[in-house]
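Page 37, continued from 36.
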């Protein structure tokens, strides 16, 4: 009986010590522009520092995974995550009164203090499953726009709400997401 108990204990302990099958990782997506302007259409968004836009030779397209924030809205967290202490999220940043917000890559936006009068929103994005478009739910009636940034074919991407008055040249664009394999 002693040997049977010992054998059963051994088999049970090796079964419990075997690795647990991990769940499939969350889906990861890249952001791409759709535009009537041929030089913008199909371009992937990249990041230079905090600025997210279209760059001549970006090292990599911006990749993200969605995290639900409130009902129907998402935070777009950068992938791969750097670590627990440095979480990156895509956000819209700008002066509260201008109606023009830059798409940016921010480190720990929830734990960062921003200057008074600065609007920062990283948790109000919508992801339309049918059109695969990314929209901003924090301003009614707005749209994405690409603004030239320099003479080398680079573009910054901003959210322009109807109240924004700009004399800068810009192109209306649609930001779409696609799964990265």
């Amino acid at each position: 009986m002693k040997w049977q108990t010992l054998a059963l204990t051994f088999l049970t302990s090796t079964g419990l010590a075997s690795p647990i099958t991990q769940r499939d990782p969350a889906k990861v997506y890249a952001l791409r522009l759709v535009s009537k302007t041929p030089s913008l259409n199909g371009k992937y968004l990249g990041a230079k520092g905090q600025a997210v836009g279209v760059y001549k030779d970006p090292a990599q397209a911006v990749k993200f995974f969605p995290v639900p924030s409130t009902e129907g809205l998402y935070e777009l967290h950068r992938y791969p995550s750097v670590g627990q202490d440095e979480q990156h999220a895509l956000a819209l940043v700008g002066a509260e009164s201008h109606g023009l917000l830059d798409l940016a890559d921010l480190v720990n936006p929830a734990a960062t203090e921003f200057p008074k009068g600065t609007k920062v929103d990283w948790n109000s994005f919508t992801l339309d499953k049918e059109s695969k478009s990314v929209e901003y739910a924090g301003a009614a009636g707005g749209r994405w726009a690409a603004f030239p940034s320099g003479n080398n074919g680079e573009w910054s991407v901003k959210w322009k709400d109807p109240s924004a008055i700009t004399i800068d040249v810009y192109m209306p664009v649609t930001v779409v997401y696609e799964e990265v394999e």
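The chain has one domain: 28-179. Flag for discussion at group meeting. Residues 28-179 form a domain with the Trefoil (Acidic Fibroblast Growth Factor, subunit A) fold (CATH 2.80.10).
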